[in-house]
Amino acid sequence: MAKVLKKIVHNQLIAYISNNGILAPVQSGFRKIYSTTTSLLQVSDEILRSVNNSQIVILTLLDLIKAFDLLQHDILLVEMKYYNFTDSAIKLFNPIYPVGNNKCV
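and the corresponding structure tokens:
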């Protein structure tokens, strides 16, 4: 049941983000028909275009695999509010037991 719910939420979230232009046009992750190949082609094209125009090219690559582990949940909720997510959608992403809230039974 949890996997089904997760898939439904994922599909609705991606649809909302796509339909409301929240993702940058060059964002390839989390989008249909886009891949790492799409990203590589975009970067390669920009590099070649700059070199052909005698411009200096500096490329910095970052591995952000663990970045989501560092995401502050309260900031995510504020961003969702900023992008006009409904209150019910925001509540869905709001943790039941926020970090730092200890309960004893």
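(Above: one complete record from the training split.) The CA atoms of residues 73 and 99 lie 9 Å apart.
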